[in-house]
Structure prediction request, 308 residues.
Amino acid sequence: MSKTRIQLDKKVPLKLTATERKLVLGDLMIMDQENEQAIRETPTGEPVMMTLGDLDVFIGYIAAEANHTEDKRLERKLDRIYDKVQGLLDKFTEVEDDVIPIEEGRKRQGKSMMGVVAGKLFQFKITLLDSKPAIWRRIQTRDCTLDKLHEHIQTAMGWTNSHLHQFEIEGERYGDLELLDCGEEAFDYFDSTVTKISEIVPNDGNQFHFVYEYDFGDCWRHEVLFEGCLRAEKGARYPVCLEGERSCPPEDVGGIVGYVGFIEAIIDPDHEEHDRLLEWAGRFDPEQFRAEKATKGMRRGLPDWRAM
Prediction:
């Protein structure tokens, strides 16, 4: 097995404006000491030399702040810093045939990794099962773990990662063993934090589908259709949401049945639950969807709950 060919101790220059330096040093109080020290010790106007490992940590703080702030102006400023850091990571962390050994959970018989090369993209269509009309997204991503694919689905669809999830693939279940914390039942799961997309999909690129389930109470089940592989465009950034239709249902609305009742209530001013549900959900348009907004969410990712 070959490991990821990324030099995490490699130093690269991060160019921050004076305003950006002031922002991250003044507002991002949870930033780790090493990154803060590197920024403070670098004269204004000069690029901050940071290792790829430190940048990876730093971008997590930026994403967490951007995801949680309600100040749209601050969010846009953080987005610009996020894009700078992500650009450096994309430039210097190309991966070649990386295989992460499985150390926890059951051992699995994965498909061959032969032919998996840097620059290959995996395209999926994610459809919320039983939604009529269909709620769906089409995304592209580089090879990553199923745990990261979970993040891409969450952010592309519009969920908030407030509940447990699992994948069902060819009769087997995959999940985050630490999150599931299901005792002996954990042995019934493969570890999604180390299982790669390239280990799951067919080597010949043929279409292949599996199920992603989110929120075991509301039971939001999605068909994840692997549509094939293609090569990344030079200079393009990934992941990306290419297209889709309709809004993601609100969290805790009661599953598909509850969502149907919710829509009926909010569009009917005379419905007895109309005012209450509008106050609960806020402004909600079931037909609204913007691929560029979904892409932004995918690139930000989810806050690292383990670091909180």
Notes: Residues 11-92 form one domain. The first helix runs from residue 18 to 26. The longest strand covers residues 220-231.
